[in-house]
Amino acid sequence: MKLITLKTFSSDISAHLLKTRLESEGVECFILDENIVRLNSFYDLAVGGIRLQVREEDYERSKALIESWEDRPYLDEEDRELKCPKCQSTTVYAGFKSFKTAAGWLTLAISLLLVVYPFFTKTVFRCKECGTEFDMKD
């Protein structure tokens, strides 16, 4: 049985969520390097992240499933497609970590000086077309 890396993650939670979703579709998955990344987040770069692997024969199907899930538009509280406030595009990244606030820049500076993982980031949506970052409340 040959395994192929389907996707890499920096968060074990994200890896397990995708693993569970794929397994509900009948795809057997394996997670590698989870424990070493959990020990120290800087090891993430050394080992290449947490790897989600699938059997070679399931790779194309798994890839197609992920693409279909990622192509779904995000919806707001009223079930309308979430649109970029600048260009009105519906293709957005969710869960984007932004440092554009004053607290974000301060955190980034302290993190670099003390070599610690950033303790403050604002999670926003980011438009894939124009790069605008926005909150759902905007």
The whole-number mean of residue pLDDT values reads: 84
User: Shape, please?
Assistant: flat
Lateral arrangement of strands in the main beta sheet: 1-3-2
Number of strands: 6
Count up the domains: 2
Number of DSSP helices?
A: 5
Which structural class do you get from the secondary structure elements? alpha+beta
Report the order of strands and helices. Answer: EHEHHEHEHEE
Catalogue the unreliable spans. Answer: none
**What is Rg?**
18 Å
Span between termini:
49 Å
SSE layout and pairings?
Blueprint: E1 3-9, H1 12-24, E2 29-32, H2 34-39, H3 43-47, E3 50-55, H4 59-70, E4 92-98, H5 102-114, E5 122-127, E6 133-134
Antiparallel strand pairs: 1-3, 2-3, 4-5, 5-6
Description:
By secondary structure, the chain is α+β, with helices and mostly antiparallel strands. The chain folds into two domains: 3-70; 74-138, no CATH class. The chain has five helices and six strands, in the order E-H-E-H-H-E-H-E-H-E-E. The chain has helices at 12-24, 34-39, 43-47, 59-70, 102-114; strands spanning 3-9, 29-32, 50-55, 92-98, 122-127, 133-134. Strands 1-3-2 form a three-stranded antiparallel beta sheet. Strand 5 (122-127) and strand 6 (133-134) form a beta hairpin. The chain is flat, with a radius of gyration of 18 Å. It starts with a strand and ends with a strand. The relative contact order is 0.14. The model has no long low-confidence stretch (mean pLDDT 84).
